[in-house]
Amino acid sequence: MESTAAHVTKEQVLTGLFRSHCVELVRLAYCLLGDRERAEDAVQEVYLSLFRHWPPRDEASALAYLRAGVINRCRSDQRRLYSARRGQPQLQLSAVGAQAGADAATDVVARDEASRLADQVRGLPRRQREVITCRYYLQLTERETAELLEIGVGSVKRHAHRGLATLQARLEESR
Amino acid sequence: MSTFERRVSELLRGYGEGLEMTTQDVNRLEQELEQKRATKQAQSRGRRNRIFQAAVAACAVTGVVLGALALRSGPEPTPQPAAPSPTAGSTALAMDAVAGMWREETRPGETPTGWIWTFTPQGLAIDSLPDRVLRLSLEPTHKLGMVPGGFTVTDVEAPACSTTFAATISPQGQMRATVVTSTPAQGRLCDLAKGDFRDLTRVSPMSPASEALSSVWPARAATPVKGVGDLAGTWLLKGTGRVLTITGAGDYEVRDPAQPDRNRKGRLSVAPDGRVTATAADDPKCTAVYRPITTLYNAFDAVLDGGGCARLGRAGDQWIRLN
User: Fold this and answer.
1) What is the mean pLDDT of chain B?
2) Rounded mean pLDDT, A23-49
3) Shortest CA distance to B145 belongs to which of B122, B127, B176?
4) How far apart are CA B71 and CA B74, in angstroms?
5) Which of A43, B204, B303, B317 is deepest in the core (most CB within 10 A)?
């Protein structure tokens, strides 16, 4: 059983971690989900998970755990979203797009190039979406991306290449 | 980095950073997090208290079961660290630590699945339909491999579907199986993503956590049993590790890995006056007759009225629905 002192320290460290990384993680989740409320929920769930899986080795491993957790959580969230809409194939893509668009907060932002790109990234296959987000939003190296997603560097290169090619084609089409 | 890559990076950063996060937002999120954490801890404490009370009441029986397990497996397996992935370099999780039947607990806000996870040296079997549960120990749905800190399962019917879990097992007999990796293939458990988890309670052999187990299903109006279909399902004899499976056709099997000599199977029938008769599969003369049974759907009481050769449990029992 944990001592009270250890428990206080655990809470204090968790609070510190939350204050240090919460904004970055909510924005990461927002990139992946396009929905602020779901992004905030995802990040809170991952912190709760970290609390249960205490202690991390150090702050770097805690951040890696949190980032990986957010990406996984967003993946599950998207699966649930798609699963809930299964049986409505005609509505699925437009519904996702509509939600993402609506959550872009304003019509101005929704039309913004950044929002359009984010929508396109969210429309990529799972691995491509995650690799593109890690490489170009988190600005991780190929090796760091590979470690975070637990895939090979070669896979990172392949998914990034395919994802970028798709994005370029779609952005050109939309012009 | 190419011009296009730089552009993608700028736009994505711009999109993410365009989400305004004020100090008030962070404070609000922190307060919400604290509330969620406190709620979960309170739920956990409540569970622990109930388990403790049950464990005190059943300490003698528990000691016997744990002692038997210790004799079979050597030193009692210590709870695995709650790591998000199996621990490299540590020894594989012992089969004895997971062997038996586990009830999948209901996740908050979700309806019960009724899934039973049966771990045997032959594999893992997961199902909720009585007809299949009856055959679980003979027909695993998954190949099972023990790995450091957890286990890997591969769907027998979909060999491309493989999932590795990190397992945390408490001395009370509760397991949290957290997905470490899952192949993106069709198959059971492959719909889970990394970080997803399932909470399980070992019901057979009995564990301290299952001693005072109640059904995850809500009670319904009391209904007299008129046919064997009214009893179809998988049931746990309260206070024991004895599991009774009844199919819609009336086949039944009673199992308890801790007392295999008391395992039974046969057929049930319901007389017009409501009395329920169990007849052993291997001896038509071996029967047990129960007084008319009234079920609440999530539980039923069975009182022996005559015979006893093929009795399902003791003279008077309460059975708790597992699925």
Assistant:
1) 79
2) 91
3) B122
4) 6
5) A43
* Whether A137 and B193 lie within 8 Å, measured CB to CB: no
pLDDT over threshold 90, residue A160: yes
Chain B hits for A117, Cβ within 8 Å: 8, 11-12, 15
Contacts of A120 (CB under 8 A, 6+ apart): A166, A167, A170, A171
Q: Do A44 and B14 touch (CB under 8 A)?
A: no
pLDDT tens-digit series, residues B180-218: 998 877 778 887 888 888 999 999 989 988 888 888 888
What is the distance between the alpha carbons of residues B33 and B10, in angstroms, rounded to a whole number? 31
CB < 8 Å to B172, chain A: none
Q: How confident is the model at residue B233 (pLDDT cuts 50, 70, 90)?
A: confident
Which of the pair, A174 or B152, is modelled with greater confidence?
A: B152
- Candidates A30, A114, A37; CA nearest to B19 is A30
The answer to whether the CB atoms of A18 and B37 lie below 8 A apart is no
pLDDT in tens, B3-39: 899 999 999 998 888 888 888 888 888 888 888 877 7
C-alpha torsion A168→A170→A175→B2, nearest 10: -10
Q: Does A146 touch chain B (CB under 8 A)?
A: no
Q: Does A173 touch chain B (CB under 8 A)?
A: no
Assess whether the previous peptide bond of A55 is cis (omega < 30° from 0).
yes
Q: Are A26 and B17 inside 8 Å of each other by CB?
A: no
Considering only CB atoms, which chain B residues are within 8 Å of A73? 195
Q: Within a 10 A sphere around the Cβ of A9, how many other Cβ atoms?
A: 13
| Touching B: A residues 6-35, CB under 8 Å | 15, 18-19, 22-23, 26-28, 30-31
Q: What is the pLDDT of residue B72?
A: 40
ipTM score of the complex? 0.80
Phi, psi (5° rounding) for residue B239? 85, 5
Judge whether A120 is closer than 8 Å to chain B, CB to CB.
no
H/E segment holding residue B59: helix B59-73
Size of interface A-B (CB pairs under 8 A): 105
**Three-class secondary structure assignment of B233-259:** EEEEECCCCCEEEECCCCEEEEECCCC
pLDDT digits (tens, 9 = 90+) for B93-111: 788 889 889 999 987 767 7
pLDDT of amino acid A99: 44
**Between chains, do B29 and A40 touch, taking CB under 8 Å as contact?**
yes
- This prediction has a pTM of 0.49
Report chain A residues whose CB lies below 8 A from the CB of B84.
49, 53, 65, 68-69
Q: Which chain A residues contact residue B5 at CB under 8 A?
A: 136, 164
Token pair recorded at residue B300: 């039923």
State the pLDDT confidence band at B133, using cuts at 50, 70 and 90. Answer: low
A101 pLDDT above the threshold of 50: no
